[in-house]
Amino acid sequence: MIASKTSQLDDAQRIVITGVGLAAPNGDDLGQFRQALLEGRSGVVPYEIRYFGKTIAGVCNFDALRHQKRKELRRGTRAGSIGIYCANEAIRDSGWDWANVDRSAVGVYIGITEHGNVETETEIFLISGYNYDTSVWSHHHNPRTVANNPAGEIALNLEITGPHYTLGAACAAGNVGIIQAAQMLRLGECDLALAGGVSESIHTFGIFAGFASQGALATHEDPTKASRPFDQNRNGIVVAEGGCIYTMERLSDAKARGAKIYGELVGYAINTDATDFVLPNPERQAQCVAKALNRAGLNPEDIDIVSTHATGTSNGDSLECEALRNAFRGSQRTHFNNTKSYIGHCMGAAGALELAGNLPAFQDGFAHPSINCDQLDPECELPNLVLEQPRELGKVRRILNNSFGMLGINSVVIIEDLGGH
């Protein structure tokens, strides 16, 4: 197996992940999340939201009061709360000496699909009980809905004075947060970074109504079986909330403090379909994968696990599989899996959260499966597609993470195990 291009770089230009904090519908930390993926445990449950009514969703159950007071929860947003929880847990996991960290040298880069809908819908609902008298509109509304809110709430909570912003990249946003952090670290704009994605999507009825109007909202008598990528009878997306934030730093700094290293970002790419509002373009997706491989100096057969984006929609899954068959043609080594089958679609958090679910494969050597595929759609056939049961791969060296979104945005990251570090 060839070495990636980054191995030829100075350690000050090599970017590594040193901490993981997450909130998923089936786990509140990486250990719980990984165990659920290996055991096939779904986090999708019955759910009800005003105006839309009864449905299903991926709902998180983390302890929001671990890092916030009740007053802070009332003032802030669900996305901000998820981000605060994940960021604090990532810092704890990283071993950063937070009390002595220069907060002006910390950057916060958080991907989102959308933000502000929850708060606006809630305020309109509340003032409807007062004959739409806007004088009762919350004075917290503007800071809750500004686009930088999730990253800003994290910065306020952790007293970070370095750069912070959110990146609106639809459902490619989790990967985009990671990519932005790496670029800023290499530019010297920060020395430490908190990066990933968050989503509060289940708290806006508009998301459910929108997918339902598209005929793209999943239904099933058993909520745990509703999210079924690749299955012949899949019928749409399960909306989910969640978050995953990583601590990222230069390899030279991580080595200097003897840090635990989850992996190195060795390749990435972002491109655009420029063909349709919602329908994916498999040619552009394959090009995005190829660009990430080229940046890393790798061939398709150098990738052990591909974490697919597949959401459970008819066209989306089959078109991504077409892209992957083209991108990985001839590779006998590469295995493919999916995480949305367990938790639904966590929107802006999806890319970061799904990557996290695969990272422990560097230690345990297993690819977790995609579940709920009772009958594989022939259009979704992939060589070495891991279904229903974990597959032991032996040594896992590299993971490629796909994450795509509306308006044709595609993102790919490649993480490599550094072995002894």
Descriptive tags:
globular, 14 helices, 421 residues, Peroxisomal Thiolase, Chain A, domain 1, two-stranded antiparallel sheet, alpha/beta, 14 strands
Descriptive account of the structure:
With 421 residues, the chain is an alpha/beta fold. It has 14 helices and 14 strands. Strands 5-4-6-7-1-8-14-13-9-10 form a ten-stranded mixed beta sheet, with helices on both faces. A two-stranded antiparallel sheet has the order 2-3. Strand 9 (305-307), helix 11 and strand 10 form a beta-alpha-beta unit. The radius of gyration is 20 Å and the shape is globular.
Please write out the topology.
Elements: E1 15-23, H1 30-39, E2 44-49, E3 53-58, H2 70-75, H3 78-94, E4 106-112, H4 117-128, H5 141-145, H6 149-158, E5 164-168, H7 173-187, E6 192-199, H8 205-213, E7 242-250, H9 251-256, E8 263-272, H10 282-296, E9 305-307, H11 314-327, E10 335-337, H12 340-343, H13 350-358, H14 361-364, E11 366-367, E12 391-392, E13 398-405, E14 409-416
Parallel strand pairs: 4-5, 4-6, 9-10, 9-13
Antiparallel strand pairs: 1-7, 1-8, 2-3, 6-7, 8-14, 11-12, 13-14
Helix pairs in contact: 3-6, 7-13, 10-11
